[in-house]
C-alpha cells in the first residue's frame, strides 16, 4: 500500500481515536475489574490468583498468535476494513460468552475469544498509521493511538464499576462496535501501488529488533502493574472499596498519561526527537513502581499512579512513531506491526506467570514491584542500541 504525504484531517483523527478507545475498553474493562471479580466468584479467595493467572495467560497466548495472523491476512487482502470488522465481531462474541460464564472453562474460552478477536481491529488500526499518516504527523497520531488506549482503560473500568458482572460485560460489548462505527464511515483505503500486495517475510533488521525489545520491556512493566492491582489494593494496601479505588487510580493514571502522551507526541514531531521520550518513560515508570513496592499506603499509591501514568504517557507519545520509522518494508507493514504488537501482548502472557509465584511465595508485592522497576531500567539500558532514531 502506498503512503500519501497529504496530512490526515482532524475528523479522521477523531474517528480513529474513538475506535481505539472502544478496542481498549473491550480489553481493559475485563482485565481491571470484571475478570478478577469473576475469578473470585468461581475459585474463591484461595484460588482467585491462580484462576486469573490461567485465564489471562491463555488469552494472551491466543493474542500472541492472532495479532501477526490478522496483520498477515490484512497485507494479503490489501485492505484494513474487513479485518477491523471481522475481529470486532469475534471480540464482541467473546464478551457475551463471558457475560454468561458460570464455569472456569467457559470463562477461559470467552477471554480467549476476546483476545483473538480484538487483535483484528488493533492490527488494522496500527497499520492505518503507516498507510495514511505522513512521517511529520506520526508522533501526533501515534500518541493519539496510545492516549486513546489509555482513555479506553477508563471507559472500560467505569463500565465495569457501574455494571458489575454480566451487565458490565454486555455494556463493554455494546461500546466496542459503537465507538468503531465512525472510523468505518470515515476511513478510505489508500490506492495500491500495483494491484493486490503480496505478503512476504522480510528480515526485520537490528533496529526493528531493538525497538521491539524496548516495547516488550515497557509493556511488561505496564502489565505487571495492572495484573494484580485489584488484589494489591485489597490485600496489601487494605482499601475498603477495591473497585472504586481501581477506578480512581485508573483515572489518575489516564489523566497524566493522556496529557503527557499527546503533548509528547506533538513535541516529538516538532523537535524531531524520539529517544529522549523513551528514556524519560523508563526512569519515571521505575520511580512509580518503587513507590508501590516500598510504601503501600493509599495516599502514596495515588502519587505512584501519577508517576506510572506520566511514564506510560511519555512512552506512548513516540511508541508507534518509533516502530513505523524502523519498519523494513512498506509492503508488509501490517504483518511487521503484527510482529511488533507481540511485544505488547506477550507481556500479558508473562505477567501472571511472573507475578503469581512472586506474590504468593517469593516476597509478595514489594518484590514484584521492585522487579518491575528493574525491568523499566533494563529498557533504558537498551536505548543506546536504537541508533536509527534521534
TrEMBL record:
<keyword id="KW-0472">Membrane</keyword>
<feature type="transmembrane region" description="Helical">
    <location>
        <begin position="208"/>
        <end position="231"/>
    </location>
</feature>
<dbReference type="GO" id="GO:0022857">
    <property type="term" value="F:transmembrane transporter activity"/>
</dbReference>
<dbReference type="InterPro" id="IPR011701">
    <property type="entry name" value="MFS"/>
</dbReference>
<dbReference type="GO" id="GO:0005886">
    <property type="term" value="C:plasma membrane"/>
</dbReference>
<feature type="transmembrane region" description="Helical">
    <location>
        <begin position="141"/>
        <end position="162"/>
    </location>
</feature>
<protein>
    <submittedName>
        <fullName>MFS transporter</fullName>
    </submittedName>
</protein>
<keyword id="KW-0812">Transmembrane</keyword>
<dbReference type="InterPro" id="IPR001958">
    <property type="entry name" value="Tet-R_TetA/multi-R_MdtG-like"/>
</dbReference>
<feature type="transmembrane region" description="Helical">
    <location>
        <begin position="301"/>
        <end position="322"/>
    </location>
</feature>
<dbReference type="InterPro" id="IPR036259">
    <property type="entry name" value="MFS_trans_sf"/>
</dbReference>
<dbReference type="InterPro" id="IPR020846">
    <property type="entry name" value="MFS_dom"/>
</dbReference>
<feature type="transmembrane region" description="Helical">
    <location>
        <begin position="12"/>
        <end position="31"/>
    </location>
</feature>
<feature type="transmembrane region" description="Helical">
    <location>
        <begin position="51"/>
        <end position="70"/>
    </location>
</feature>
<feature type="transmembrane region" description="Helical">
    <location>
        <begin position="243"/>
        <end position="264"/>
    </location>
</feature>
<keyword id="KW-1133">Transmembrane helix</keyword>
<feature type="transmembrane region" description="Helical">
    <location>
        <begin position="82"/>
        <end position="102"/>
    </location>
</feature>
<feature type="domain" description="Major facilitator superfamily (MFS) profile">
    <location>
        <begin position="10"/>
        <end position="390"/>
    </location>
</feature>
<feature type="transmembrane region" description="Helical">
    <location>
        <begin position="367"/>
        <end position="386"/>
    </location>
</feature>
<feature type="transmembrane region" description="Helical">
    <location>
        <begin position="334"/>
        <end position="355"/>
    </location>
</feature>
<dbReference type="Pfam" id="PF07690">
    <property type="entry name" value="MFS_1"/>
</dbReference>
<feature type="transmembrane region" description="Helical">
    <location>
        <begin position="108"/>
        <end position="129"/>
    </location>
</feature>
<feature type="transmembrane region" description="Helical">
    <location>
        <begin position="276"/>
        <end position="295"/>
    </location>
</feature>
<feature type="transmembrane region" description="Helical">
    <location>
        <begin position="168"/>
        <end position="187"/>
    </location>
</feature>
Amino acid at each position: 500500500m502506498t503512503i500519501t504525504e497529504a496530512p490526515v484531517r482532524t475528523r479522521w483523527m477523531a474517528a480513529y481515536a474513538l475506535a481505539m478507545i472502544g478496542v481498549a475498553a473491550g480489553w481493559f474493562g475485563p482485565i481491571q475489574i470484571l475478570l478478577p471479580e469473576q475469578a473470585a466468584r468461581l475459585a474463591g479467595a484461595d484460588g482467585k490468583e491462580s484462576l486469573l493467572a490461567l485465564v489471562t495467560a491463555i488469552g494472551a497466548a491466543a493474542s500472541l498468535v492472532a495479532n501477526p495472523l490478522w496483520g498477515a491476512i490484512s497485507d494479503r487482502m490489501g485492505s484494513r476494513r474487513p479485518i477491523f470488522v471481522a475481529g470486532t465481531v469475534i471480540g464482541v462474541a467473546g464478551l457475551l460468552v463471558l457475560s454468561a460464564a458460570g464455569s472456569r472453562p467457559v470463562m477461559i474460552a470467552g477471554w480467549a475469544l476476546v483476545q483473538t478477536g480484538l487483535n483484528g481491529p488493533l492490527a488494522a488500526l496500527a497499520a492505518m498509521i503507516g498507510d495514511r499518516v505522513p512521517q511529520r504527523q506520526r508522533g501526533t497520531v501515534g500518541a493519539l493511538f496510545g492516549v486513546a488506549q489509555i482513555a479506553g482503560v477508563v471507559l472500560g473500568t467505569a463500565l465495569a464499576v457501574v455494571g458489575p458482572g454480566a451487565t458490565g460485560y454486555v455494556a463493554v460489548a455494546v461500546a466496542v462496535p459503537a465507538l468503531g462505527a465512525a472510523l468505518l464511515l470515515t476511513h478510505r483505503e489508500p490506492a495500491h501501488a500495483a494491484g493486490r500486495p503480496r505478503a512476504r517475510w522480510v528480515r526485520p533488521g537490528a533496529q526493528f529488533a531493538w525497538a521491539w525489545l524496548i516495547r516488550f520491556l515497557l509493556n511488561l512493566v505496564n502489565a505487571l502493574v495492572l495484573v494484580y492491582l485489584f488484589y494489591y489494593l485489597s490485600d496489601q494496601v487494605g482499601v475498603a472499596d477495591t473497585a472504586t479505588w481501581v477506578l480512581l487510580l485508573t483515572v489518575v493514571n489516564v489523566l497524566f498519561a493522556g496529557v503527557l502522551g499527546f503533548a509528547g507526541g506533538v513535541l516529538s514531531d516538532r523537535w524531531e526527537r524520539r529517544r529522549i521520550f523513551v528514556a524519560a518513560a523508563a526512569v519515571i515508570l521505575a520511580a512509580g513502581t518503587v513507590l508501590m513496592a516500598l510504601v503501600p499506603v493509599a495516599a502514596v499509591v495515588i502519587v505512584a499512579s501519577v508517576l506510572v501514568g506520566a511514564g506510560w504517557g511519555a512512552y506512548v507519545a513516540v511508541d508507534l512513531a518509533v516502530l513505523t520509522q524502523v519498519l523494513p518494508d512498506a509492503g508488509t507493514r501490517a504483518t511487521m506491526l503484527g510482529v511488533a504488537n507481540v511485544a505488547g501482548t506477550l507481556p500479558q502472557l508473562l505477567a501472571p506467570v511472573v507475578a503469581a509465584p512472586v506474590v504468593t511465595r517469593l516476597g509478595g508485592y514489594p518484590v514484584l514491584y521492585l522487579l518491575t522497576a528493574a525491568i523499566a531500567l533494563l529498557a533504558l539500558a537498551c536505548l543506546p542500541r536504537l541508533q536509527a532514531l534521534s
